[in-house]
């Protein structure tokens, strides 16, 4: 072993001797030219090519550098041995990164790419209005020359798209509203926003699982359908109409859709919009990957159903609601938003000034809406939010009481299954009963729910019986008095039909 170290020291001494001779004989310029020529020859015979991506492009920030940093964070968290860790502003996730001089190998379309992160100290810089960072950071990409046509620029485009999606998913989602009376602020942005933290998901949504799967599949097809919409020449948007009685979970459905797709929500208040022009400006200021919501559209503005013989009466506003603008007499006259403007908003030329957006309308009375507003192309999918079914009831009991699937086959559950449809109770009412009894033992809370449903069925039966009796009395009075109005006769007939349908 001693002889090996002696030989190694001799070799190093000889190498140092020849190096000193070269430095004494050859000038620095010649040595630099020789080294440059050697590197060129090495690159010519090498099977790899290299790309350097610096953090700063001159005095401007290189967007590609930050995209690569975010893209590699997915692989760095598992493959790298030494990592940097950060969390950005308004971000809900931690970002892993490569440490100084660390390497990682990434694959794309069957080809491999090696990334190395380099951090060096920048030399002292002269005075500048925009000083550069003290450290110079860059990524070096090493790929095989034969893979260059395959990776450049497709690989870099993939990195940019993936980083944009990761950045959007990591940021907190926002809930926007136009509650400024339609006026624009100094920056020309008419929306105010707050962080969107609604906990509703499709797992907790009280709805039949088969219908939820259908809606989720439709949402996924839309989010992944960029190529389809481009090939067919259609705007990348989709409309959903949620209708049904109050308390059936329409707002929870919207929140579940936003959480499922990681979209922002724009809650458009039509009563705050004065003209069609303001409506277009609001649409232009929405972003892609968002859900534009108009709740209770039949009550927002007086949109006449042109297919009906007489206009549907608008919903009465609360007594303490003041006119949006101007005096009480001039407020309605100043409002010029029309059905035509709303139709153009959802499916006109202006609706195409963005991509990957979903329009959602909600209503309690679908018959009040104009057919042109709910046709396919504007509202592509109609979702009826019905009363609480037994499948939805089981989901609510699991959410509030922790009721397991193994417990859903006993006598108590069979009684609930028999009575829930006849009770015609909304998921909101069921939730109220379960919340009130959530601290009780599970079976006691379920028994209390059963009693509430039975009481509701009895009230409905008594109400229907009273209506039938009243209808029969009105019919009898009408036969005795020829001057009885035709409306009363029709009312009595309808009451009888409702009773017969209930008995069936």
Automatic annotation (TrEMBL):
Q: Which residue stretches belong to region Disordered?
A: 308-329, 460-504
Basic and acidic residues bias spans: 494-504
Q: Which cofactor does it need?
A: Mg(2+)
Q: Does the keyword Magnesium apply?
A: yes
This protein's record includes keyword Magnesium: yes
- Give the keywords, sorted: Magnesium
Q: Which GO terms describe its molecular function?
A: ATP binding; ATP hydrolysis activity
Provide the coiled-coil residue spans.
none
Name of a matching Pfam family = AAA_lid_At3g28540
Q: Residues in domain AAA+ ATPase?
A: 236-389
- Give GO terms for biological process: response to stress
Q: Where is the composition biased (Polar residues)?
A: 482-491
Q: Which SMART domains match?
A: AAA
The UniProt similarity line reads: Belongs to the AAA ATPase family. BCS1 subfamily.
Descriptive protein name: (wild Malaysian banana) hypothetical protein
According to its UniProt entry, this protein's organism is Musa acuminata subsp. malaccensis (Wild banana)
């Amino acid at each position: 072993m001693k002889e090996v170290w002696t030989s190694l020291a001799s070799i190093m001494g000889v190498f140092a001797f020849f190096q000193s001779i070269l430095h004494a004989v050859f000038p620095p310029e010649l040595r630099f030219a020789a080294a440059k020529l050697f590197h060129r020859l090495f690159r010519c015979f090498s099977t790899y090519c290299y790309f350097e991506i610096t953090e700063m492009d001159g005095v401007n920030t290189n967007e590609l550098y930050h995209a690569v940093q975010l893209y590699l964070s997915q692989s760095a968290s598992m493959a790298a041995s030494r990592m940097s860790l950060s969390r950005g502003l308004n971000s809900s996730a931690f970002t892993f990164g490569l440490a100084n001089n660390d390497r990682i190998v990434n694959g794309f379309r069957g080809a491999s790419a090696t990334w190395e992160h380099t951090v060096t100290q920048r030399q002292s810089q002269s005075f500048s209005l925009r000083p550069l960072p003290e450290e110079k950071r860059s990524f070096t990409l090493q790929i095989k020359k034969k893979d260059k046509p395959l990776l450049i620029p497709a690989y870099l485009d993939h990195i940019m798209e993936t980083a944009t999606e990761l950045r959007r998913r990591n940021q907190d989602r926002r809930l926007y509203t136009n509650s400024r009376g339609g006026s624009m602020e100094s920056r020309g942005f008419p929306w105010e926003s707050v962080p969107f933290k609604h906990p509703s998901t499709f797992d907790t949504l009280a709805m039949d699982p088969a219908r939820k799967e259908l809606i989720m599949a439709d949402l996924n097809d839309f989010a992944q359908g960029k190529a389809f919409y481009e090939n067919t020449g259609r705007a990348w948007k989709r409309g959903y109409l949620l209708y049904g009685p109050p308390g059936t979970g329409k707002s929870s459905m919207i929140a579940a859709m936003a959480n499922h797709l990681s979209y922002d929500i724009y809650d458009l208040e039509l009563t705050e919009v004065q003209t069609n022009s303001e409506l277009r400006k609001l649409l232009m200021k929405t972003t892609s990957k968002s859900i534009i919501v108009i709740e209770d559209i039949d009550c927002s503005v007086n949109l006449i159903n042109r297919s009906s013989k007489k206009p549907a009466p608008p919903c009465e506003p609360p007594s303490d609601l003041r006119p949006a603008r101007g005096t009480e007499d001039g407020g309605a006259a100043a409002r010029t938003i029309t059905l035509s403007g709303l139709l153009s908003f959802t499916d006109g030329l202006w609706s195409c000034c963005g991509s990957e957006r979903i329009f959602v309308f909600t209503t309690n009375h679908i018959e009040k809406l104009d057919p042109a507003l709910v046709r396919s192309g504007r509202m592509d999918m109609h979702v009826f939010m019905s009363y609480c079914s037994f499948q939805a009831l089981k989901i609510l009991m699991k959410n509030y009481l922790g009721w397991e699937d193994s417990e859903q086959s006993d006598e108590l559950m069979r009684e609930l299954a028999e009575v829930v449809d006849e009770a015609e109770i909304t998921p909101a009412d069921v939730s109220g009963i379960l919340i009130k009894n959530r601290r009780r033992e599970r079976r006691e809370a379920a028994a209390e729910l059963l009693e509430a449903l039975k009481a509701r069925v009895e009230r409905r039966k008594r109400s229907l019986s009273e209506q039938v009796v009243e209808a029969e009395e009105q019919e009898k009075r009408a036969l005795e008095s020829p001057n009885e109005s035709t409306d009363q006769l029709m009312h009595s007939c309808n009451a009888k039909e409702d009773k017969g349908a209930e008995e069936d």
